[in-house]
Write a structure and sequence with these properties.
The protein is of the alpha+beta class. It is 47% helix and 21% strand. The strands form 4 sheets. Strands 7, 8, 9, 10 and 11 form a 5-stranded antiparallel beta sheet that branches. A 4-stranded antiparallel beta sheet has the order 1-2-4-3. Strand 1 and strand 2 form a beta hairpin. Helix 6 crosses helix 11, helix 7 packs across helix 8 and helix 9 crosses helix 11.
Length: 435
């Protein structure tokens, strides 16, 4: 039987579903009889409760379940018959004027859009690359040394300098009044490493143990503490202790401590380089992928289903609440989060997902088994026991689905780069790592 589909606005459609009232009644009675076999009621033995009692107690809920099942099945059959790809859940409303012995419902819903991709050969994409230099290896080696540094007391007559760990007492006031976080005792930080505002470090640099100093400090306008952002405070600081740092030498002992089997400096530097090249590869890929996705969003023409955007918005709100919960925010699950703040981002996600899905379908860019295996093995190399990591991924469908999504996006990225006008740009190592 042909299904009459009414076109409303853009992607919105409506169909009328009709169900014989007798079929609903028979199914309700059947379920109530089945329920009566196990239902319990005061004054009756199990299985002996009168149907009138069962119907009175459970009739409404059973009728509701049957209607949901029957209408849902009728909707699925109708949309399949009409070859419609339904986006999101339909809105079902009972319709008046049904023929005698029938029930009628209007199902209003959205369908997936037609995705029209523009000429990718006319699109311009910036593709970045980065070289792991010896300077990058040296910098990483210095970071590893700092992670294993020790500190020793300086003589009281020696002034605090960059690299020294200082212990201080401080107190700050704004217009003579204290503010949150304005005071601390035995507070430690390393001078010159940016742990404190520059003006604070400048004040402490050159002080000696026992010295006290008062100085003004201007908080930046974008300071994380909004109560003091953009304001000027007067601080008094007293230097209690100065410790000089000692970095371990770059030798075989350090190499062995860092897990290098042959214990050589060459082996240590080679291991650092391999890890950096792996990290650079993933960061470059992520950056280039982002550029490709921006191009796809601009190049595609499609209407975006509002139901999918609403669903994505709700997921983002729930994720935000979960993040608040992890941060220890009280009653995070009830936090009032306006959907409007996520609307644009949710719409972009849905739009991009539809475009990528169409590109994958039209060009056979699905993830291949060997690609999944290679990607997992590459990720596992940064762990101490790669084989266990590989098994961990392969043993869980959800994790494998996440890997598959990444591989598919990589395939799409490469496909677009092969088609588009590519502008190559060499990024400095530090610029890439800070982005």
């Amino acid at each position: 039987m042909a299904v009459n589909v009414e076109n409303l606005e853009k992607l919105e459609r409506r169909i009328t579903l009709t169900l014989p009232a007798s079929a609903i009644k028979q199914e309700v009675e059947s379920r109530l009889r089945k329920l009566a076999r196990t239902v319990k009621a005061a004054g009756f033995r199990p299985g002996k409760v009168p149907m009138s009692v069962v119907a009175q107690r459970y009739g409404y809920s059973v009728h509701y379940e049957v209607m949901n099942d029957k209408v849902g099945r009728a909707f699925t059959d109708a949309t399949n018959e009409a070859k419609l790809r339904v986006a999101g859940a339909p809105r079902i409303a009972e319709k008046e004027g049904a023929a005698e012995g029938e029930l009628a419902f209007d199902a209003t819903f959205e369908v997936y859009p037609e995705v029209k991709l523009g000429d990718l050969s006319a699109a311009e994409v910036e593709r970045v690359s980065t070289e792991v230099t010896e300077a990058a290896v040296d910098k990483t080696l210095d970071i590893l040394r700092k992670q294993r540094r020790t500190f020793a007391l300086r003589a009281q007559s020696e002034p605090a300098a960059d690299g020294d760990r200082v212990t201080i007492d401080f107190e700050g006031k704004i217009d003579g009044e204290p503010f949150e976080g304005n005071k601390a005792e035995a507070f430690q930080f390393v001078v010159g490493e940016g742990q404190m505002l520059a003006a604070f470090e400048d004040a402490v640099r050159g002080m000696k143990v026992g010295d006290s100093k008062t100085f003004p400090l201007q908080f930046p306008a974008d300071y994380q503490g909004k109560d003091v952002a953009g304001k000027e405070a007067d601080f008094m600081v007293t230097l209690k202790k100065v410790e000089a740092q000692h970095l371990p030498e770059v030798n075989e002992a350090l190499a062995k401590a860092l897990g290098i089997k042959d214990g050589t400096i060459e082996g240590l530097r080679a291991d650092i380089r391999r890890n950096l090249e792996r990290e650079v590869k993933f960061r470059v890929l992520a950056r280039n992928k982002g550029a490709v996705m921006d191009v796809l969003v601009k190049a595609a023409e499609l209407d975006v289903p509002t139901t999918l955007v609403a669903g994505e918005t709700e997921r983002m709100i729930e994720a935000a609440r979960e993040d608040l919960k992890k941060r220890g925010v009280k009653d995070a699950e009830k936090a009032p989060i306006p959907p409007e703040i996520f609307k644009d981002q949710a719409e972009r996600r849905v739009r991009l997902g539809l475009v990528v899905a169409e590109l994958v379908r039209a060009n056979n860019l699905q993830a291949k088994a060997e690609q999944l295996q290679a990607h997992i093995e590459e990720m596992a190399q940064s762990y101490e026991k790669p084989s266990e990591v590989v098994r961990w991924y392969l043993g869980d469908r959800q994790r494998m689905a996440e890997v598959e999504a990444v591989v598919v996006e990589n395939n799409v990225t490469q496909f677009v780069l092969d088609k588009a006008k590519v502008v190559d740009k060499m990024l400095a190592f530090d610029e890439l790592m800070q982005s």
